[in-house]
Design goal:
The protein is α/β, with parallel strands linked by helices. Helices cover 20% and strands 20% of the residues. The chain is globular, with a radius of gyration of 26 Å.
Length: 455
């Protein structure tokens, strides 16, 4: 069990009931389930060795099956013990609107039918399925062209989904579906997914009340998951110039979130520093949390360095918007993430020009004119002296999904490294733990642990 959730189960917990996580991925659903129940998931199934590697190092007490979900025999896996909860997150790629007009796979689209196999053989008391909203459009596919390409049949959208629901009903399950956003339950991402809950124990299906939003706890902001200590290199000194579309997106973001924003996001805390430029001496810097140094009567150049930031979204040529406000939850993290942090570096404006730099660099040349333009921040004039951009790191993306900060993402249980590409993929494919916790807590109240404090 993950250390953050190592707690004592409630008296009366039914240890004889098994907890199953199918399509387990890197462990998002299992993390939320454990937070709700205070005990490890019993069985985790996934065909991807990298996903199982990440799951194993974080959930060592779970029995892992690294094989196709169809290769696992429910009766053999459970050994005759009853199943209290079975969670399923079948591959969503061939339903998602992000797939566009590219071919789809009938095999991948049919993975959800494995739920019926478990329902018919070991009859889990509670079944929860997670997928993209477009899963409700699940219908037959038709062959197009001569290369075995398939496309969803536009005239029969939703037919297979309705058949799936009816099949669960024939096995004695009451079924309900809803679309939920992770940010409404404490995760700093707006990720929205369709959830299906099925019960066969005669108890009512329960949907958790939102905990964050208007009139509730404030949404967790995208800025909360940014590591401001990581350098954000200038876009003007790159060896390879940015693509024209990327430059346009950055320009729109600077315009919207910095120039036209009466209250641009200013970095606070450890990444904010104050630099002294007095009488041409070497600049000294100190934390903004420390008392201000002696103020002198005449200073050439700027005194205070600020950073205004936003997230740029790079979804190929399809996205043309300005990006994303850091004061709001982050957009959906994908398996190949495209979130980039953009910083507009500002200094207090004087007619002679400002001076800014990192302490481990030589002193920069002081420009004689404003390099990029002026910005007014709460009545004070600031000059944009540079624009930096970097892609978000895997640790930041996992934080955006709601994973605990000590969740292991860079190595397996044997110490072998997990590549950054694989880390991002496992994050984008993961279930938000906060939502899994809320759903399991609501539907297994007799087994649930006390609520954790909000992060």
């Amino acid at each position: 069990m993950h250390p953050q959730f190592r707690t004592t189960p409630q008296i009366g917990f039914n240890f004889d009931e098994l907890i199953i996580d199918s399509f387990a991925g890197g462990g998002g659903a299992s993390t939320g389930i454990e937070a709700a129940l205070g005990r490890p998931v019993d069985l985790a199934i996934n065909h991807d060795p990298q996903a199982i590697a990440m799951h194993t190092v974080n959930h060592p007490q779970t029995r892992h099956y690294c094989e196709s979900v169809w290769e696992v025999d429910p009766r053999a896996a459970t050994g005759g013990r009853p199943v209290g909860l079975a969670w399923f997150s079948p591959d969503c790629r061939h339903f998602s609107k992000a797939k566009g007009g590219t071919p789809v796979s009938p095999r991948v689209r049919g993975l959800a039918w494995v739920v019926l196999r478990w329902a018919a053989t070991v009859r889990p008391r509670v079944i929860i399925l997670e997928n993209v909203e477009e899963f409700k459009s699940w219908g037959p596919v038709v062959k197009v062209g001569g290369d075995g390409d398939y496309r969803p049949c536009p005239k029969r959208k939703g037919n297979t989904f309705r058949s799936f629901i009816n099949a669960l009903g024939r096995h004695g399950y009451q079924v309900e579906t809803r679309e939920l956003r992770a940010c409404d339950y404490g995760a700093p991402t707006i990720r929205k997914r369709l959830f299906l809950i099925a019960r066969c124990d005669g108890q009512p299906i329960s949907w958790p009340e939102a905990t964050h939003g208007p009139g509730l706890q404030p949404y967790r902001a995208a800025a909360d998951i940014i590591d401001w200590s990581i350098p954000c290199p200038s876009i003007f000194t790159r060896k390879r110039p940015l693509a024209e579309n990327t430059q346009r997106r950055i320009a729109r973001g600077i315009q919207r979130f910095v120039i036209d924003n009466p209250e641009p996001y200013i970095v606070k805390g450890a990444a904010t520093f104050v630099t002294e430029h007095a009488n041409g001496s070497n600049p000294r810097s100190w934390s903004a949390a420390e008392p201000l140094r002696t103020q002198v009567a005449s200073i050439k150049g700027g005194h205070f360095a600020l950073v205004s930031a936003f997230l740029a979204k790079h979804y190929g040529g399809n996205y043309t918007g300005p990006g994303h406000d850091l004061n709001q939850p982050i957009s959906t993290v994908t398996a190949k993430d495209h979130h980039a942090l953009v910083n507009a570096f500002l200094v207090k404006y004087y007619s002679e020009g400002g001076q800014w730099q990192h302490l481990n660099e030589p002193v920069h040349t002081i420009p004689t004119r404003a390099r990029l333009g002026l910005v007014t921040v709460k009545g004070e004039a600031y000059q944009i002296v540079d624009i930096g951009m970097r892609m978000l790191e895997p640790r930041e993306l996992f934080a955006a999904q709601g994973f605990p900060p000590d969740y292991i993402i860079n190595r397996d249980a044997s110490g072998n490294p997990i590549t950054k590409t694989q880390q991002v993929a496992k994050c984008g494919n993961s279930v938000c733990p906060d939502l899994a916790e809320a759903l399991v807590r609501a539907n297994m109240q007799e087994n649930s642990m006390p609520m954790r404090e909000a992060a």
